[in-house]
Specification:
The complex is a heterodimer of chains A (150) and B (262). Chain A is mostly helical. Chain A has helices at 2-10, 13-26, 44-57, 68-79, 83-90, 102-117, 123-139, and strands at 91-94, 97-100. Chain B is an alpha+beta fold and 262 residues long. Chain B is globular. The chains are: A mainly alpha (150), B alpha+beta (262).
Amino acid sequence: MKATDSAADETPAHEVLLYHWLLIMTDATPTESSIELKPLQEYASVRTWLDGLRQHWGGDPATDEPERLPMFEAFCRYANRDPDQIIKETTMIKDGEKRIRVKGRERYAHLIDEWQAQQEGSRIRKGKWGNTVRSFLIHNGVLLASGMQA
Amino acid sequence: MEFKEVIGRRRSIRFFDPDKPVEREKIQKMLEAARLASCAVNAHWARAIVGFRDDLTEDQLNRLKTPVAGLNTELAPVHIHWFNDLGIVNRIQGSRLKELVDVGALAPTHGWSHKFVDDFVYPQILKPMTQNPGYPIPSTMDVGVAMCQALLTGVDEGLGVGLVTLNGAVLKEVFKTPDDWIPLSTILVGYPAESWNAGGQRPRPPFEELYFEGEFGKPFARDPKVVEELKRDKMIQDPAKPNDPKRIEEIRKLAEKYGLPM
């Protein structure tokens, strides 16, 4: 749990608690092969996400939705990928232009659906988990057409 | 509603109330309006198939959707799919032009007669036109005119409408269309879940960049008095503003209601 220890240095206590709670809820206890994560805001793709949220919705997305980052971190652990790796696997540069990897996007769309379905709670609540990750991808330019989750 | 206001109120609606059905008569009115559209050589290439979302299987709906149109399509209870029936010209062989001659819409004053159609227009112009690789382009334009009339009639009936492009190959398969029909766009129809104003009239390029007088590069002079008149007639309405807090709040509420990513 080195990643969590390091995250705790810079993450408000309530978020660390929330993170642990989310791990229990998702049964996503890291295994030996689990990825080690830096504090999420050190990843360029997470900063892009939060900037996009701030520009579109206003407010401070790092703090105005306390579940946002812990939920996303729980997904990263489920996928065993760090945020920048997720973007690398869903996009590519071809002829100097950024493109979406169709197979990568499909893989993550299914992975998000699968992970979301495992969550506890109402359909809306489950949708919130999945939509947090979809929001991360959307604000990084990876369109996901997930449809209604409510 | 007055005609100019209908034009002014039209928005591409992207949030439909998924549970509110559309009255059949309103759909018929949209189709009736399309049938009356202007059309070259009276051929009528436009074909439409009305699809009801709830009649589709989940697999069909998923395969029809394209990434940017997926949610709108899922929300809208009615989908009117438009096609270009490329075979029509060679099936009717000018007969509808002769109908126009018979009713006096086309007259000898302008050079029209049955013989002109039979000997010249169909064999020498229309038939070769259908063999030209570019044939779908002008005929599709006429389908667009018909679709526009349907779209505006939907607005006049208080419906939300929006044009999208779905997966054409799947459209042909699901709706079992003839081989020579080209799938075009789909009008999504339903009652808006968002306000009819949907944030305001959409940004448009400046008038002077689009329309010219006499020659390219010389903008058609836009008279401010006409603009004011059209504002009074509600054709030109308040434009949507960037980062409008009311619109942001509206979308936020819709996202929460339907469980959408933000």
